[in-house]
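Please check this one:

***
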Amino acid sequence: MASTSDFRNGLVINFNNELYTIVEFQHVKPGKGAAFVRTKLKNIKTGKVLPNTFSAGVKIDVQRVERRAYQFLYKDGTQYHFMNSQTFDQTFIDEELINAPQYLKDGQEVEILFHAETESVLSCELPVAVVLQITYTEPGEKGNTATNTLKEATVETGATVKVPLFIETGEIIKVDTRTGEYSERVKS
């Protein structure tokens, strides 16, 4: 057991029988009354952030989580198959635990978050940006690049991304997995 003096950003705790990570905390010592710690906690499964206040010195249940590098192998229905890069062990993850499954392609490296005590998967995170090839998009008009107009393009994973008018079929682009937006064209 730890106490509020052990708080740090990124610490994972068991709070109300769910796992939360500390996003932000502030120790407060008012002139009158007892000290307390004001925090923002993020639910690991749902991603919901909630504010909470702990009394100073209260005991907290710290949980150990591990980030491990895995490689995406293939999709089978709603199950995604991954292989550990060091041990070659395979694991299966449901689609709802992956932050952006529409941008996963074969052989892609991801980070899987495990609860160390139960060896259960908490989440699967893609890199911030992925490089994908455009498989289809409408042809752009010559000279029509001065505006910020976007068109739809289908990438190799089957996902649809809004891209600028000058992007053509066969080009390679970088996509932000957090927002699903086009970042830049990749030079090959």
